Amino acid sequence: MFDKPETLKSHQTEHTVQDLHKTINNYCESLVTVDVSDISCKICFVKLDDIFELINHLVIYHELEFSNEIGINMAPIKLDDGAKCVFCSSVFKTFNHLILHMDRYHKGCFKSKCSICGKNFKSAKDFCGHVQKQFLEDNLKCSQCDLYLNYGVLRSHMREVHGMKYKCLSCYEFFPSHYKRSNHMADTHDRRKKIKCAHCSRSFIFRSILTRHIRENHLKEKNVVCEICGWRTFGKHELANHMARHDTVKRVRCPTCDKTFKTNKYMKKHYIKSHE
After folding, report:
1. Is pLDDT above 80 for 25?
2. How far is 253 from 185, CA to CA, in rounded Å?
3. Highest mean pLDDT among 65-79, 135-149, 181-195, 240-254
């Protein structure tokens, strides 16, 4: 097992052609997943852009036989900085995430002929463009209410109904804030780097949040003072929560039983304990 694609690729050079043939002969699946991030003809060593171009090259220049009806029986992926889908360019942090994505959205698309409309393609660029358009036109499931909507309607639906206007730049998940989207892209797709705190094991997407964390938790800064009791804290948000203790009015109402509380924090504790 390898954590990084480059380590796996380096290791694979240790295997011989005989090892490859032995493995393929014992392989029982109908589809083989192949890395096409660095693809070339093994006969004349010319570099090629993708597996479909390689097939055209082998048929035209080396006169090898190829059946369009059977197809390539290979699922092309790109193992560069993360695992990349060659059909819709989505990038995933792990190989397993990519395989699940391809099985869900691009199953049956590993032929030079489209399995849905029957159209044949001479170039990979045309074929991938066709598949991507078909993918975007298909209905996608809303993660919040299980409705199936096409991509254009889904974006408006997520924004207007669920308040999630931030779409992941690598997949079709939506988030209510830029911060949550950035965390997702770092954890799932490895497209952002987190900044590690030098004083503890925590890491953060934004440097401003890291700075606040260090000042509050490690430097123990307390620059805000309660004018009523003299209690000190780091930020205005914490002070606002504290001021609720001095307020006799219970302003926060439980959405289920109409009980009222001084703070949202107390209401949430009540809701979890009594209604969930």
Report:
1. no
2. 35
3. 181-195
How many degrees, rounded to 5, is the angle at CA 127 between CA 190 and CA 138?
70
Total-model pTM: 0.38
Band the pLDDT of 135: cuts 50, 70, 90: low
Alpha carbons within 13 angstroms on the beta-carbon side of residue 215 total 13
CA angle 93, 78, 17 (to 5 degrees): 120
pLDDT at 59: 84
Q: How confident is the model at residue 118 (pLDDT cuts 50, 70, 90)?
A: low
178 DSSP 8-state letter: H
Structure tokens at 252: 């926060």
For the chain, the first-to-last Cα distance in angstroms comes to 41
DSSP state of 4: S
By the 8 A CB rule, do 254 and 267 touch?
A: yes
Crossing angle of helices 51-61 and 124-137, rounded to 10°: 140
**Contact criterion met (CB below 8 Å) for 51 and 41:** no
- Torsion, Cα 171 177 178 181, to 10 degrees, reads -30
